[in-house]
Design brief:
Layout: H1 4-19, H2 23-40, H3 44-67, H4 70-80, H5 91-103, H6 114-117, H7 129-161, H8 166-190, H9 208-227
C-alpha cells in the first residue's frame, strides 16, 4: 500500500508549480517537503532530485505565468478568487453558482429556472448547461445525471476490457477518457472547482459538431462491444 508521504513526494514538483505564485505558500510547502523527505528517508539521489525539481518549478512558474495571455491569467485568478471581479471575469462563475444554489433539493421545475429565463446565466445552452440542470432539477436531478454518466463510464470501460485486441481496447478506453474529462471539467467549472474553459457537456450542450462526434463515439463503442461479446471481463466492475 502506497503511503501518503510517498504520494506527496511524487506529486511535489506539480504542487510547487501551483504554489509558486505566492512566496509564503511556496516557502511553507518547501519546508513541508524537507520534512517529508526526512520522514520518508529516500535514497540520497532521489532526495536531491526531488529538491532540485521543486526549486526548478519555483523558478519556472513566473516565466510560465508571464507567457500566458491576459485572458488566461484572468481565468486562473478568477478560479482562485471568484469574488475578485464579480462584474467582469468572475461573472460567469458567480451566476452559475447562484443558479445551482437556487435549485435546492428538487429544483425550480423544468424550463422554470429564473437565472436561465431572465438571461443572467451566460452560455446557458453550451458551456454552462450543467448550471441550468442544477437550477431546474435541483440536487436530485444533478445526482441522476451524474449517476447516468457513471453508468456510461463503467459500461464503456467494460467494453474496453472485453475487446478482442489491444488496439480496440485502447480506442474504447481513450474515448471513455475523453468523455470523462469533458464531464469533469464542465461540471467542475460550473461549481468553481476548476478554471472556466470552453468544454461542453456530452449529450447536453448545444452544438452540432460535438453532438455528432459523441454519437459517432457511441457507434464505435457499440462495434467494439459486438466484436468482444463472449469474452470474459479483464476488469471486475
Amino acid at each position: 500500500m502506497v503511503s501518503w508521504p510517498l504520494l506527496l513526494l511524487v506529486a511535489s514538483p506539480g504542487i510547487s508549480l501551483l504554489l509558486a505564485g505566492s512566496d509564503n505558500l511556496w516557502g511553507g510547502w518547501f519546508i513541508l517537503l524537507i520534512a517529508l523527505i526526512w520522514y520518508y528517508r529516500p535514497y540520497v539521489f532521489e532526495g536531491v532530485a526531488l529538491v532540485l525539481a521543486n526549486v526548478a518549478m519555483g523558478i519556472l512558474a513566473p516565466t510560465l505565468w508571464n507567457r500566458l495571455s491576459p485572458y488566461q491569467q484572468k481565468r486562473l485568478l478568477t478560479f482562485l478568487d471568484p469574488a475578485a471581479d464579480p462584474r467582469g471575469s468572475s461573472y460567469h462563475v458567480l451566476q452559475s453558482q447562484t443558479a445551482i444554489g437556487s435549485g435546492g433539493w428538487f429544483g425550480q421545475g423544468f424550463t422554470d429556472g429564473s437565472q436561465k429565463r431572465l438571461g443572467y446565466l451566460p452560455a446557458q445552452h453550451t458551456d454552462f448547461i450543467h448550471a441550468v440542470t442544477g437550477e431546474e432539477l435541483g440536487f436530485l436531478g444533478v445526482t441522476v445525471v451524474l449517476t447516468l454518466f457513471l453508468v456510461l463510464f463503467l459500461r464503456t470501460t467494460r467494453i474496453a476490457s472485453r475487446s478482442n485486441d489491444a488496439f480496440s481496447g485502447l480506442v474504447a478506453f481513450g474515448l471513455t477518457a475523453s468523455w470523462f474529462v469533458h464531464v469533469l471539467v464542465n461540471v467542475g467549472m460550473t461549481l468553481s472547482l476548476m478554471p472556466v474553459t470552453g468544454i461542453p457537456l456530452p449529450f447536453f450542450s448545444y452544438g452540432g459538431s460535438f453532438m455528432l462526434a459523441s454519437w459517432l463515439t457511441v457507434g464505435i463503442l457499440l462495434r467494439i462491444s459486438s466484436e468482444g461479446r463472449g469474452r470474459a471481463d479483464a476488469l471486475v466492475l
